[in-house]
Specification:
- By secondary structure, the chain is α+β, with helices and mostly antiparallel strands.
- It has one domain.
- The protein is 42% helix and 16% strand.
- Helix 2 crosses helix 4.
- The longest helix has 21 residues.
Amino acid sequence: MAAKFKASHKGIGELLRSRMIEADMLHRAEKIAAAAEAIAPVYRGAGHVHYKDSFRVTSTSRGGRRRDRAVAYVTNTSPHARFVEYGTERVQAHHVMLRAAQAGAGE
């Protein structure tokens, strides 16, 4: 006799919003943040906020586009984070967050 499976959409939603999933997402985000800090370029200068020291990790059980799942975010609060990541016409793009996320995806 073949097994039958009937998905409970309510149950799947509860699982995606659970503390267990949020904790796992937070753990993965912390690994990505650590990898980003390790490969971040360091610019020395007086009065500058250092990009390398500005990574932050946050999580919520109501994230995603539809606010229906647990997520964790890795952000950089440095005012020049965008320029480090994507570059300018004078500065080469470093893609720190992209490379850190790709490295973390393999685990």
